[in-house]
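Page 37, top half.
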Amino acid sequence: MAGSVVTRTSPTAVRLPEAGVDRAELPRVECPGKLAPKDARQLSKLFFDRLRELDEGTHEYQYARNTLIELNISLVNFAAGRFRNRSEPREDIVQVGTIGLIKAIDRFDLSREVEFTTFAIPYITGEIKRFFRDTSWAVHVPRRLQELRLELAKATEELAGRLDRAPTTDELAALLDLTPAEVTEGQLASNGYVAGSIDIPAGEEEGSGEGVLADRLGDLDPALEFVENLQSLKPLLAELAPRDRRILNMRFGAEMTQAEIGAELGISQMHVSRLLTRTLTRLRGQLLIQE
């Protein structure tokens, strides 16, 4: 592309389009996925602004859209990290999360005055959760038994049509050239595909007045994610300048207002606001890099 070139010379040094460059020419970004978060956000705004003026299907539109995906792929990695304990391969989770990122890019509007990160994360996590809901088994089942479940389902439907009744284990075994024991194993495995509802009555009879099963189950502690984020922040906080750490402590520890902090430090409330914004932006960016 004939525009200026954006290269990664250091984690924070990025050469953006120079004054006088035709606004219609977007910069050519080399290795956009390796840019520092601050640079990626700055470039994203430029590309979003231009994307809305381009005709869909043109080469320039595809370049802008694809570059935005690469600039923000760290958001997908961040969201996928929240599901690292799932049995599905991380590559599959990232691929599905990327679909959510693309949807967010197609629907984002700079005029909303909302950071793209804030806008995109719900789309990405929503797509990942939908993937788990639609494709995951309730319990881990070997691939062989997953395939056997499909074969049994087809055979059962075929024999039920012929016999006008539910087929027996022996009849299914004969049709699929399996032993009755293998058919039974496949039928048991099918129970792992759909979990029982937690809204069923907890008592043996529906009218027992025992409430539903969900009332007896524990839930995830909402503070767990907070603890995880806090542990990730500790080393990052230690790298801050003493004044920045003190301002954060006064604002979020002592819950002081910006005006009170300014009076304590002998600076204006506006200056406190700028320092807080700068520090929080830096911390968010470093957390994204960690993922």
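Page 37, bottom half:
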Amino acid sequence: MPSSVIRAYYYDGLHAVLRIVFMSGAIYDYEAVPEAIYRAMKKARSKGTYFNEAIKDKFRFTRYQDK
């Protein structure tokens, strides 16, 4: 199901970084994210709800702006 908040997300298993691209154009890299969190996000019916419950405010992040 497409998300109204999250445009795309990618996981770098080597570095345990989850990149989330929001519809606003903001890009966030979340650090030290276990692969199980990424897999659960893939399975989640609502990506935005899962993000809010399991990722937001739980992992250190770096914010970028889409160009």
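Margin note: The chain is about 25% helix and 35% strand.
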